[in-house]
Amino acid sequence: MQPNQVTQADTQADTQAVVAVVAAWLTDATDVTVLTGAGISTESGIPDFRGPQGLWTRDPAAQRLSSLPDYVAEPQLRRRAWQSRRQHPAWSAEPNAGHQALVTLERSGRLRGLLTQNIDGLHQRAGSAPTTVIELHGTIWEVECLGCGDRQPMTTALARVDDGEDDPACLRCGGILKSATVSFGQPLDPDVIRAAERAARECDLFLAVGTSLTVFPAAALPRVAVGNGALLVIVNAEPTSYDGIANAVLREPIGGVLPRLVAGLR
Ligand code: NAD
């Protein structure tokens, strides 16, 4: 199979063949950039947004919790957001075999960058180097003041909610506090997006894992990589709009297939 052939793993036999080819590409690669999305953490018990069991698939109204204009305008929505944060599955989730496989890839010396849309911190918990992980959409483990930018641990803010403050304000300036994640209507950190684009430009293989590739600018990164000559491999249960330009597509559960892709790396 030539690197420029698009492959679709629709049957078990196809899957084995595509896994073997992609594993060989990874062995030959010197700089691999990985983009992960919510799908890599569903096997850790954190639901995605748009998959069949996704939070927004089941409750479209929940999207408003991720809208910055609504969050700023509606105290009622902020109170609901704090209750939702208290119960977030990230606090007790453990990394899974998919996260571990990316640690194996890193230890083989081939990982150029691990770009994640996730806010759950599970890559770092699995053992990925904090300097390798680029959190495109921030982290749920901290809160940020929308007024003065002060950052504090999420645990401190949640303790205040537990003590009866239903919408805790910034202790420095009295402004609105929010998890340090990027909501709709909120720009990404320009330094973060520049670093991610560079990692996409400078790789020879780009691996997109567990993302519907619908949230921009993250979803533009595979095209940046392909435009600079990289192979594109997509591992996602459902079709994405980038499957047509991918060199290989694996529609498989991530925790099963990623370990197989990296098993032979030394
Ligand atoms: P998405 O919800 O749009 O898409 C997830 C994709 O992963 C879906 O296409 C789904 O079919 C696939 N998928 C789910 N479980 C899978 C599995 N076990 N194996 C293979 N494929 C699987 O996610 P997105 O593209 O990351 O965009 C959602 C946004 O929501 C991101 O900005 C992200 O910040 C945020 N988010 C993050 C988390 C988290 O941190 N864990 C969870 C939910 C949402």
Topology overview:
Blueprint: E1 8-9, H1 12-28, E2 32-36, H2 55-58, H3 68-73, H4 75-86, H5 97-107, E3 111-116, H6 122-126, E4 133-135, E5 138-145, E6 151-153, H7 154-162, E7 177-181, H8 190-201, E8 205-209, H9 221-227, E9 231-235, E10 248-250, H10 254-262
Parallel strand pairs: 1-10, 2-3, 2-8, 3-4, 8-9, 9-10
Antiparallel strand pairs: 5-6, 5-7
The structure holds nicotinamide-adenine-dinucleotide (NAD).
Residues 37-39, 41-43, 46, 48-51, 54, 117-120, 137, 210-212, 214-215, 236-238, 253-254 line the site of nicotinamide-adenine-dinucleotide.
Structure description:
- The protein is α/β, with parallel strands linked by helices and 266 residues long.
- It folds into two domains: 1-46 and 95-137 and 188-266, 3-Layer(aba) Sandwich (Rossmann fold); 49-92 and 139-181, SIR2/SIRT2 'Small Domain' (2-Layer Sandwich), CATH 3.30.1600.
- Helix content is 35%, strand content 17%.
- It has helices spanning 12-28, 55-58, 68-73, 75-86, 97-107, 122-126, 154-162, 190-201, 221-227, 254-262, and strands at 8-9, 32-36, 111-116, 133-135, 138-145, 151-153, 177-181, 205-209, 231-235, 248-250.
- The protein has a seven-stranded parallel sheet, with helices on both faces. The protein has a three-stranded antiparallel sheet with strand order 6-5-7.
- It is elongated, with a radius of gyration of 19 Å.
- The protein starts with 7 loop residues before the first strand and ends with a helix.
- The mean pLDDT is 94.
- The site of nicotinamide-adenine-dinucleotide has 27 residues, from loops.
